[in-house]
Amino acid sequence: MDVVPVPVPHLGNRCHLVHDGRLALVVDPPRDHRVVEAAAAAAGVEIAAVADTHVHNDYVSGAPLLARRHAADHLVAAAERVDVPRIGVHDGDVLAVGTLRVEVIDTPGHTHHHQSFHVTDRAHAGAGGAVLSGGSLLHGTVGRTDLLGPEHTLDLARAQWWSARRLATLPTTTALLPTHGFGSFCAGGDVAGTGGASVTLGHQLVTNAALTTNREEFVARLVAGYGPVPTYYSHMGGLNRAGRGAEVPAASRPVTADQVTDALRAGQWVIDVRDRALFAEAHLEGAVSVEHTSQFATYVGWLVPWQDDIVLLGDEPGAIAAAVRELESIGIEGVATHALAPGHRMPAGYRRARWEDLAALGDPPVVLDVRRHDEFDAGHLTDARHIPLHELEMRIPELPDGEIWVHCRSGFRAGTAASLLQRAGRAVVHLDDDWDRVPAVHLSVDGAAAA
To answer: Rhodanese domain: from which residue to which, for each copy (predicted)?
Structure first.
């Protein structure tokens, strides 16, 4: 057997294609079927089965459409309520995909009916093979258990501990292949590694807290470490149960410069995907900067109220097209797009600065830290104001008058925050610098300087 990882960086996830050289099982595919089909084509294999380890809360599953396109079996836990054609599988079921043996293992915790898939080659029955663990046991941690509501969090955390222990009874040579833990907010706690088939259950037995800590201590530490949840997560379960991933997304629609102006005047979300430095230099008044990076879809989905109209701006058609696909992966479809023409007049802008510029000021300005609460608590500039980016728009009135210098960890979130502040009529300076450079500048810090 062979395993082909299919990274999905804009979701912080990883799909896997497991094959015997002829037929393949795909586990937890993204909505964009093309990346999976490209991996299958490169391996020279046919997709025979597609599995969802759980009803996903962070993206629209591509399993229904992928299964239909390839006349493949779509495997989902029999206990799940989903309105898509599927084969309901139960704990202990053993399925054949070519020469592969696929055993279904109930691993509740991330969701109530979560399952993992232990895949081995029938010709080498004693080998450990690989376990496709979805949002159960991850590299160094487990999937978070609070996404279905606070009333389920503790019970699911206890179930997650038991599920991790159950997976740990598989051969120690078994490769651990989770979906989450590569940047996704679905991971609970710190992720200890992002390796592939080289991460084995044997390694996890001595490094993963779920396997080295008693249940109640583990549960308490896990739940205490949960951070915020992107707001769009609350819509993903419903979309997946309704089979949104079986549909081709509604197409984006190009709009004219005049229509962009109308959208800005109407207060709609006009999102500029260009590099944050280019945005700071010149942009359309009222536009919001969300630079097209691996975090783009997460923060657009988090900041823009669900189903609000969105216009995407950019100067590279390829970047706009990629941004459209990434938004489709979380169920945001049919957005308007506009490619900025060379020389297009963009009258707005603001200053970018480094830590040295802040240190050189005689009278310190209002400094706003837009990192998460855990980042701020670990270490922050003395006297800095703190509002996490995802709370900023509603809390701008809390900030004092005067110019605001805004920073985060790397500059990405601060760029978005600066644009939101300017859109609200505030004078702003974007501190576009790395947090780990603070010690070298000798700015006053409460707590650790590099968090």
So the answer is: 264-347, 361-447
